[in-house]
Design goal:
Sulfite Oxidase, Chain A, domain 2, six-stranded antiparallel sheet, 2 helices, 9% helix, globular
Length: 142
């Protein structure tokens, strides 16, 4: 399984596997406590940001699928409560479950602001690129 890469305008670009994500602060052992009907173990998006130390002028995150076929450029403010789901039932997420990693924004109302309108649940997450300006976005946002 390929790691989740977090790069761009950061002091410390990193690649995380499920075990490394599990070692970060900000764990949510059961996401159903935050999002009814969803299951799995996650880490808060903010914990990833703490690990990579974004530049002061970073305002956007481009969320890209592992195969590069999907990308969404989202304002960081819309990701304040986001989670990265990396396990279900104690094992890494499978492709059938949207793995290896999934981004989930618990509050659907936030998904209508900050460019996060249709990315409340990004499946197959493989790369997060941080930047001061909007990045690649393959969504049809019309």
């Amino acid at each position: 399984m390929d790691p989740l890469r977090v790069e761009g305008a950061v002091a410390s670009p990193q690649a995380f596997d499920a075990d490394q994500l599990g070692g970060l602060d900000g764990q949510v052992g059961d996401i159903s406590s935050l999002v009814r009907g969803r299951t799995g173990t996650a880490v808060r998006f903010s914990s990833l940001m703490d690990a990579v130390h974004p530049a002061a002028d970073v305002r956007y995150a481009t969320l890209e699928s592992a195969d590069g076929s999907f990308a969404a450029s989202v304002a960081l403010e819309a990701l304040a409560e986001a989670l990265v789901v990396y396990r279900k039932d104690g094992v890494p997420l499978t492709v059938e479950e949207g793995g290896p990693f999934r981004l989930l924004i618990p509050d659907a109302a936030v998904c209508r602001s900050g460019g996060a309108d249709r990315c409340a649940a990004v499946k197959f997450l493989g790369r997060i690129t941080l930047s001061p300006h909007p990045g690649r976005d393959t969504r049809d946002v019309t």
